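Input record, target 12 of the design panel.
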């Protein structure tokens, strides 16, 4: 069942699915796709009323995705745009200052620079900050999860952060390295944990065989939900 909803981004179809669930679940995706899961036998008028009540929230999510889409690759960092770090949407503000520094809090990414009109330098400052901070965070997560495979004789892999085009992560058993996508730093913590565990397990299982998925499921029972979130709700920017 589909329902046409008038939003600030135009008329959008809401994909409605009836499931054996206890409550309604509404999702808005970066590509403006809207999905609603509802309990079996839910009356149509109840669904319509629910969507109309949720319209302000839906518009807000669509606006956030629209604002972020232009800078998902961080090719040009400017005040008034936004980005995401570990799943949290942050507004960017460029601030003239005597020295370079970047400060992050729950709402803002504040970029202090002596040259607020030099776009090339601002972009470089942001890239260097992101590269350093994302690697520090990924490394802390890797060190936390490494004991899972260490007991099987696996050595601590080197970690590299790259702007990968098609993968969130990869590994090389030969060179004992794990590569993580530069843009993975946008994703929630649960998604980062999933990618790191996935790559660590490849040091025990080279492919995606039955043993790989059985072990992954034992260690992280909700890995499929984390993967779905990563693949369908996080803007990769590629």
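The sequence produced for target 12 reads:
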């Amino acid at each position: 069942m589909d329902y046409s909803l008038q939003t600030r981004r135009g008329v959008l179809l809401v994909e409605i699915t009836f499931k054996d669930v206890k409550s309604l679940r509404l999702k808005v995706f970066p590509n403006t796709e809207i999905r609603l899961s509802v309990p079996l036998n839910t009356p149509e008028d109840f669904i319509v009323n629910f969507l109309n009540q949720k319209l302000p929230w839906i518009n807000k999510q669509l606006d956030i995705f629209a604002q972020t889409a232009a800078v998902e690759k961080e090719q040009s960092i400017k005040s008034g745009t936004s980005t995401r770090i570990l799943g949290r949407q942050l507004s960017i503000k460029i601030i003239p200052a005597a020295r370079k520094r970047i400060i992050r809090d729950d709402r803002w990414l504040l970029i202090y620079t002596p040259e607020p009109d030099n776009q090339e330098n601002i972009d470089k400052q942001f890239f260097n900050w992101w590269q350093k901070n994302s690697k520090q965070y990924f490394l802390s997560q890797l060190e936390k999860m490494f004991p899972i495979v260490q007991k099987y004789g696996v050595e601590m892999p080197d970690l590299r952060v790259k702007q990968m085009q098609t993968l969130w992560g990869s590994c090389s058993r030969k060179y004992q390295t794990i590569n993580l996508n530069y843009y993975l730093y946008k994703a929630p913590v649960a998604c980062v944990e999933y990618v790191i565990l996935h790559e660590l397990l490849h040091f025990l299982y080279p492919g995606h065989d039955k043993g790989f998925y059985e072990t992954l499921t034992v260690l992280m029972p909700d890995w499929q939900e984390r993967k779905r979130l990563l693949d369908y709700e996080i803007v990769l920017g590629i």
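The CA atoms of residues 26 and 36 lie 5 Å apart.
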